[in-house]
Amino acid sequence: MGAYVIRRLLLMIPTLFGIMAVSFIVIQFAPGGPVEQVIAQLSGQDGGTLDRIGGGGGGDGGGQEFGGGESQYRGAQGLDPQFIAQLEKQFGFDKPPLERFFTMLWNYARFDFGESYFRDITVIDLILEKMPVSISLGIWITLISYLISIPLGIRKAVKDGSAFDIWTSGIVIIGYAIPGFLFAILLMVLFAGGSFFDWFPLRGLTSENFAELSWPEKIADYFWHLTLPLISLALSAFATTTLLTKNSFLEEIRKQYVVTARAKGLTQRQVLYGHVFRNAMLIIIAGFPAAFISAFFTGSLLIENIFSLDGLGLLGFRSVLDRDYAVVFATLYIFSLLGLVVSLVSDLIYTWIDPRIDFDRRDV
């Protein structure tokens, strides 16, 4: 197992390099860039909001580079060339792309992510500032999903072909087919001051007077704000895991060792949770890292936007729109690294659940 872990850790290096290289190359051909964002802001052509012009930045991000001459950047005509040169130096675009790329990798290897281009804050502090929202959504939706999916999937496997199995499958498939953001809008109209009831808040993770509330009131206020976003996310979150659990248990139930266990007089519960559960749950664990990373970082982008929850998904989206490449590349690096680590941890959990699995005997 030690050799397998070392190989996986070493493979993370070329994997991260490939992810960052492809993303960096794509950015070079993307229209616009931080310099053009500032120029557009100064000329009144940009509809977005840039919190800061000047300071920070560093040379870690990408950006489109144009040919030489006075028209190097669109909309720069009439501006002082020294000012344009100062912007390029501020964002690091006075250096060749290859130098910028390897400087970025060297900084990221030391977990030095620099500052946001347009916010007077370091990237790490910015991520930590948005983390509570994403943690709340990611952890709770993953927990709710698995608490619903696993018992429901086991029940469907035991009742395979029954009326219960048929109508629950219909509900699961319909829930999976309905886009979460459309359901979120429906919930807003019905229960958040739309055309019917005004029971739940529309903005933020807590109320403005949160600091003045007692601990029980703080907990109630926290879940009061989370109710509609979690319902919207949970609608389709448990469908895949439910069907995966059912199929996994069905496959194990039909094996010979289950027939032998029943022949020995074991009850249905003893067979399911004493013999089948450990083997059937392996494939569920395999899907956990992807489910967790998706819910934690990317799955809540539209929900965060609809309910005005300022989390990591919304941060990444706005950073792309604002061409804040310092934030874009840093979050991409952090999330990719975390995904690779969580995947490795999942494999280690495999061996803990079933010691018969030996990754040292298989090719990576």
What is the strand and helix layout of this fold?
Layout: H1 2-28, H2 34-43, H3 81-91, H4 97-109, H5 123-158, H6 163-177, H7 180-191, H8 215-237, H9 239-253, H10 256-263, H11 268-298, H12 301-306, H13 312-321, H14 325-353
Helix pairs in contact: 1-14, 5-8, 5-9, 5-11, 6-9, 7-8, 9-11, 10-11, 11-14, 13-14
Question: Can you walk through the features of this model?
Answer:
Helices cover 68% and strands 0% of the residues. The chain is mainly alpha-helical and 364 residues long. The longest helix is centred in the middle third of the chain and has 36 residues, at 123-158. Residues 47-71 have low confidence and may be disordered.
Give a quick summary of the entry.
The protein is an all-alpha fold and 364 residues long.
Q: DSSP helix count?
A: 14
Main beta sheet? none
End-to-end distance:
12 Å
Number of strands: 0
**What are the secondary-structure elements, in order, as H or E?**
HHHHHHHHHHHHHH
- What's the average pLDDT? 78
Structural class: mainly alpha
Helical content band: 55-70%
Rg value? 25 Å
